[in-house]
Amino acid sequence: MQIQTYFEHTLLKPTATRKDIKQLCEVAIQYNFHSVCVSSSNIFTAKSYLLKGNVKICSTVGFPFGNSSTASKVAEAKKAIEDGAQEINMVINLGMLKNQNYVGVYKDIRDVKLAIGKIPLHVTIEISELAKNEILRVCQICIDAKADFIKTSSGFSKSGATLIAVKMIKKTVKGQLKINASIGIKDFETVLKYIDAGADRIGSSFSVKIMEEMIHQEIDI
């Protein structure tokens, strides 16, 4: 198992500078992470530092709260792809879900997916804000809308991924979607637990710390 290929190395702080993005990309290349996740305004910067590697760029859309209009999400997603993003990470409209406007949630996701075609779409559902029945419902909506990944968390809510939620999502989607366990995963042992629970991608800003821990323990990567 090549643990490093699970990582979506993340930097979404609103204060992120060009120097911060450069460092993010350099270590992503060094450790051969799957991707970096950046805001859409930082795609050009990330792209300029990833020319020599195989690391992909994942751009956020409607981030971090998901309550922008569908039209604006679609426009942002299209522009992100045009600028060089190879994956898109959108946030659902939580208000719509709480209002039981399931058709609205579906259309929000579907329209973004239609706009980006075969580009992988990660849909952040913000599990810390949802009851169990809402998580189950939005899983089915994501399947119907042809999303590619369900992502647990944005990092801008009460908490991040939980093993219970990942296992629940895994059981619900039955292989029809991949799972991006994101936020709060800070050590190698926890990474293994999430992969064992069904995670296909690990979204973390602690990716380097985890890799250094593995190297220190002489774990084969």
Helical fraction: 40-55%
* Rg (C-alpha, Å): 16 Å
Number of domains: 1
Distance between the first and last residues' Cα: 8 Å
CATH topology: TIM Barrel
Q: What share of the residues does DSSP label as strand, in percent?
A: 15-25%
| Helical stretch tally | 9
The residue ranges in which pLDDT falls below 50 over 5 or more consecutive positions are: none
CATH superfamily: Aldolase class I
Q: Got a strand count?
A: 8
Structural class by helix and strand composition = alpha/beta
Q: Name the shape in a single word.
A: globular
**Helix/strand order:** EHEHEHEHHEHEHEHEH
Arithmetic mean of pLDDT: 95
Write the CATH architecture name. Answer: Alpha-Beta Barrel
How does the major sheet shape up?
Answer: 8 strands, parallel, barrel
Keywords:
221 residues, TIM Barrel, alpha/beta
Secondary-structure map:
Elements (H helix, E strand, L loop, with lengths): L6 E4 L7 H14 L3 E4 L4 H7 L6 E6 L8 H14 L3 E5 L2 H5 L3 H15 L4 E4 L7 H13 L4 E3 L11 H11 L4 E5 L5 H10 L3 E4 L2 H10 L5
Parallel strand pairs: 1-2, 1-8, 2-3, 3-4, 4-5, 5-6, 6-7, 7-8
3D structure, described in words:
- By secondary structure, the chain is of the alpha/beta class.
- The chain has an eight-stranded parallel beta barrel with strand order 1-2-3-4-5-6-7-8, surrounded by six helices.
- It starts with 6 loop residues before the first strand and ends in a 5-residue tail after the last helix.
- The protein has helices spanning 18-31, 43-49, 70-83, 94-98, 102-116, 132-144, 163-173, 188-197, 207-216, and strands at 7-10, 35-38, 56-61, 87-91, 121-124, 149-151, 178-182, 201-204.
- The chain has one domain (3-216): Aldolase class I (TIM Barrel, Alpha-Beta Barrel).
